[in-house]
Design brief:
alpha/beta
């Protein structure tokens, strides 16, 4: 299965595509990842168009089966929250126009799934994403790209857990999969 993970933002949107194989012990590999930067674009509508067209191009190249996106969290600044909602909307629309199934995960849920701690730092998330996907140290990207890969990993692990009868927490996962934990 190929999963597109998205970390939406109006200035920088991260995306990450992973491929999972359930037949080989649930292995994952990164297919493509990066960022869509629109900092230099003056107006919100033009930024949203850039996000939409670039994500559409990623979807056409990678041909994902499903899409996973980080859900909205609330800022103290209402304007920031509204703008984030616009970015999420165009990202989901790009997937929906290609008939992709979409799932949403909260930032805390993503951190818990990837690091094991819902309060993990961006550096901890990046470290675990790089470890899980065996990314080369020289292959450095912006944190938003790693966050998007973390969203895709979260979706992949949730689907695997559900198909195996549903692991409830990390302790149960470790007990049931000692060979997958180092």
């Amino acid at each position: 299965m190929i999963i597109l993970g998205i970390d939406p933002g109006t200035l920088v949107t991260g995306y990450g595509v992973i491929e999972t194989s359930t037949g080989q012990g649930g292995k994952m590999r990164a297919v493509e990842y990066g960022t869509i930067e629109s900092k230099r674009i003056a107006t919100l509508p033009l930024r949203l168009r850039t996000i939409f067209t670039r994500l559409t191009a990623v979807i056409e190249r990678a041909a994902p089966d499903e899409l996973a996106i980080e859900s909205a969290f609330y800022h103290k600044n209402v304007q920031s929250t509204l703008k984030l909602g616009h970015a999420r909307g165009v990202a989901m629309l790009a997937g929906m126009l290609r008939d992709l199934t979409a799932a949403e995960y909260s930032p805390r849920e993503i951190k818990r799934a990837v690091v094991g701690n819902g309060n993990a730092s961006k550096e901890q998330v990046e470290f675990m994403v790089r470890s899980l996907l065996k990314l080369a140290p020289a292959d450095r990207k912006l944190p938003d790209a790693y966050d998007a890969l973390a969203v895709a990993i979260t979706h992949a692990t949730r689907k695997t857990m559900l198909s195996k009868g549903g692991t409830k927490n990390w302790k149960q996962f470790i007990e049931e999969n000692p060979g997958r934990v180092k």
